User: Which sequence fits this backbone?
């Protein structure tokens, strides 16, 4: 399979994961609002149960915003570009692990391989930024050799 096809599939896996997370959070928000509206307790605006429900809702809204922002960022990756050096949107294959540089999604599977979706804000990205295939970098006392970048 060509590198662009792999990159597109990796982006799709990440997008699907985020979209599933967004749907789950929206469902949780709906459940919280439904529970709060069905509650028959005090109709006092300082009712502890309703306050707790609103806190839970606010936490979920923040999570929804985070996932939505990550999806927006992911959609900015150029799916038609093969990166020669490591930067935003790169797929990086080292002798120790495989990474996709865009969003902080963590570990995921592509075919039979484990990849890590990381953001440009994490220290390991800073250690390998702008390097290319054949280069090496040190991170946490470990030497990584870059085998491929696209």
Assistant:
């Amino acid at each position: 399979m060509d590198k662009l096809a792999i990159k597109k599939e990796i982006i799709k896996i990440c997008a699907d994961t985020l979209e599933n997370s967004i749907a789950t959070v929206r469902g949780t928000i709906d459940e919280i609002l439904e529970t709060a509206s069905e509650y028959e307790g005090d109709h006092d605006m300082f009712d502890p149960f309703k306050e707790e429900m609103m806190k839970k809702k606010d936490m979920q809204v923040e999570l929804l915003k985070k996932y939505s922002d990550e999806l927006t960022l992911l959609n900015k990756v150029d799916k038609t570009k093969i990166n020669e050096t490591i930067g935003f949107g790169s797929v990086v294959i080292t002798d120790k692990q495989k990474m996709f540089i865009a969003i902080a999604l963590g570990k995921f599977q592509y075919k039979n391989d484990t990849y890590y979706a990381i953001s440009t804000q994490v220290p390991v990205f800073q250690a390998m930024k702008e390097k290319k295939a054949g280069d090496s970098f040190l991170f946490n006392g470990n030497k990584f050799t870059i085998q491929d970048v696209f």
